[in-house]
Amino acid sequence: MSDSKLFSGKRGLIMGVANDKSIAWGMAQALYEHGAEIAYTYQGDAFKKRVEGLVAPYGSDLIMPCDVSKEEDIANVFETLKKEWGSIDFIIHAVAYSNKEELKGRYVDTTLENFLHTMHISCYSFTSVMKHAEPLMENGGSAVTLSYYGAEKVMPNYNVMGVAKAALEASTRYLAADLGRKNIRVNAISAGPMRTLAGSAIGSARKIFKYSELTSPLHRSVELKEIGGTGVYLLSELSGAVTGEVHYVDCGFNAVGMCPTEYWEELS
Ligand code: NAD
What we know:
Blueprint: E1 11-15, H1 23-33, E2 37-42, H2 45-55, E3 63-65, H3 71-84, E4 90-93, H4 112-133, E5 141-147, H5 159-179, E6 184-191, H6 197-200, H7 205-215, H8 224-235, E7 246-249
Parallel strand pairs: 1-2, 1-4, 2-3, 4-5, 5-6, 6-7
Helix pairs in contact: 1-8, 3-4, 4-5
């Protein structure tokens, strides 16, 4: 345990742990180091045992099923939190989904069905979660969702997920405006490519990963603990005046327009 107890007496909900590589789990570990108490949701029975196994050493009793495509699941989670805790201080939304078949090829070929489903899971769910969280954050609070640079610039194969992330970043700003008077802050972390289940669903994931490493000013990929550290900052009083922000944790990739000249050989 760290001496710093930024989260001592603070309780929050983390949505999106699938395994020990999940960004949500990296953030959970950083929050535990700072004294947080954490409740979790998992998507379905396939993930239940894995989440329970990860969380066991930390002793959380609140591990709840929640398929975010079902409004009643989200409502049940917050009813349980209200009953068990009365209030919460923070939320991490690290949930996204799109049909893998449409995370390759051309965006223009996206189907209506997958467009709507991707938007529902990857964007609307955050809005719904915040609507349910608002009454439990009477003393203020802080929420973080996860985005990617494909929201802003076209990235190969990211396709409909880029459109959903653009909408997610816009909703982060609208939610920040709606909830700011109640001292509820809402921010997004735009993370560089990570080797997770969701990350590997993007077509040519390994090459995107390598390209990002070569191009980033720091010349490497992001580590889970670095997303965790940013989560600690954005969810704590350290970032008290920060809301409606999209914060890059990408080794500087977004600052660069082209990969460095030493990788230009292939062009000649
Ligand atoms: P992950 O696969 O570990 O996490 C994705 C989570 O979404 C899983 O826990 C999965 O169960 C959950 N999920 C999907 N559909 C759901 C549903 N219907 N209901 C409830 N949960 C559902 O991968 P990750 O990379 O840790 O992803 C977390 C977030 O980070 C996502 O929003 C992702 O887009 C974002 N992100 C990832 C990267 C990356 O390169 N991996 C980069 C930037 C942003």
